TrEMBL record:
Annotated protein name in UniProt: Ferrochelatase
Protein family per UniProt: Belongs to the ferrochelatase family.
Signal peptide, first to last residue: none
Catalytic activity: heme b + 2 H(+) = protoporphyrin IX + Fe(2+); Fe-coproporphyrin III + 2 H(+) = coproporphyrin III + Fe(2+)
Binding-site residues, Fe(2+): H214, E295
Taxonomic superkingdom: Bacteria
GO molecular function: ferrochelatase activity; metal ion binding
Function: Catalyzes the ferrous insertion into protoporphyrin IX.
NCBIfam families with a match to the protein in the record: hemH
Keyword flag Metal-binding: yes
Pfam families, A to Z: Ferrochelatase
Length: 344
């Protein structure tokens, strides 16, 4: 509850609790990341993340003993070491870049909207930032999960979390959600132009460009999750726009987790297979990540290079995500302004 900008006009009694309203808010949301690259904070983050039924679709009675008894006793130490490889003085890259994206968008939108950012797991938490937006007078909020390709494990769980918060409120703000933008011309054109510029700036000409998307269990595709279809469409549209006849495009899925079958082909297997088949020069882009993070900076930049060169590859590069750079911010502004029509 904050101070009311309109209560005097409404002639409320002077002892009425003050309430602000009338502003539009935009909440950028990404996945989440630990607060520090140490075992304890990583364990807390993984516990919240991997307890989400949208992420691990195994009944809690079967999954929780495995999570608590095995995974949370082994993975946090290993993951913390990986996070230490990419940690910056501004903290986790994912958090630092998402914050910079929110600041960049605020500068572009000016008084039209109040922009904030949150993480689905860990901090800043979605309910806390929504509450802060209400306190700042926002009665209309655009929730923007920064995932171009929709999946239950990413986009939907952001909406679930916001809905849990809404359910507990007497006075709800009006909410909109930024739709997935896997085939949005603004995204495809921005991505193609940015990848082209990065490819031109490389010291070598790649024979292959790997478009590496985060993986998902194969079962989610069979159950009707559109994620695989969205990734395939993005890859096809970007390929059509890139128009580099001398460069072969290959779509792969990275970051396999657990023993179940995941979407294929896997990025690590493909890097090895390409090198063994004679590809010497290869670049990787990760169009499904709106910000560089552990999965790009450690898994692709560090591990990917090792996998490719140890199997005989010679030149290797990982292209940057759109992050908070100019082309990506212009794209985000365009998509957000479109969703805010009628509100601002
Ligand atoms: C971009 C889309 C993402 C999808 C789809 C996705 C699905 C998914 N992920 C896991 C398990 C893990 N993912 C982890 C890190 C991670 N995942 C994404 C994005 C997607 N995940 C991002 C942006 C990150 C990086 C976070 C960061 O801090 O930089 C991790 C944690 C790291 C580790 O221990 O390896 C896990 C675990 C599953 C199970 C899943 C689909 C069901
Ligand atoms: Fe993930
Ligand atoms: Fe990973």
């Amino acid at each position: 509850m904050g101070a009311c900008v309109t209560w005097q006009k409404q002639q409320l009694p002077s002892d009425h609790p003050p309430v602000k309203s009338g502003r539009v808010g935009v909440l950028l949301v990404n996945l989440g990341t630990p607060d520090a690259p140490e075992t304890g904070p990583v364990r807390r983050y993984l516990k919240e993340f991997l307890s989400d039924k949208r992420v691990v679709e195994i009944p809690a009675i079967a999954w929780q003993p495995i999570l608590r008894g095995i995974i949370l006793n082994t993975r946090p130490k290993k993951s913390a070491a990986a996070y230490r490889e990419v940690w910056t003085e501004d903290g986790s890259p994912l958090a630092a870049i998402t914050k910079a994206q929110a600041e960049g968008l605020q500068a572009r939108l000016g008084d039209a909207a109040h922009v904030d950012w949150a993480m689905r797991y860990g901090t800043p938490a979605i309910p806390d930032r929504l509450e802060a937006m209400m306190d700042a007078g926002c009665d209309r909020i655009l929730l923007a999960p920064l995932y171009p390709q929709y999946s239950g494990a990413t986009s939907a769980t952001v909406v679930d979390k916001a809905n849990d918060w809404l359910r507990d409120r007497r006075w709800q703000p009006a909410m909109r959600t930024l739709p997935p933008y896997h085939d949005d011309p603004a995204y495809i054109e921005t991505l193609a132009a940015d990848l082209s510029a990065q490819l031109d700036a490389l010291a070598f000409e790649p024979e292959v460009l790997l478009l590496s998307f985060h993986g998902m269990p194969q079962r989610t595709l069979e159950l009707g999750d559109p994620y695989h279809c969205h990734c395939s469409k993005t890859a096809r549209l970007v390929g059509e726009k890139l128009q580099r006849p001398g460069m072969r495009l290959v779509t792969t899925f990275q970051s396999r987790f657990g023993p179940a079958k995941w979407l294929e082909p896997a990025t690590d297997d493909t890097l090895e297979a390409e090198a063994k088949a004679g590809t010497k020069r290869l670049a990787v882009a990760a169009p499904g990540f709106s910000a560089d993070c552990l999965e790009t900076l450690e898994e692709l930049v560090i591990q990917g290079r090792e996998q490719f060169t140890e199997a005989g590859g010679e030149q290797f590069a990982v292209l940057e995500c759109l992050n908070a750079r100019e082309p990506g911010m212009a794209m985000l502004e365009e998509m957000v302004r479109r969703e805010l029509r009628g509100w601002v």
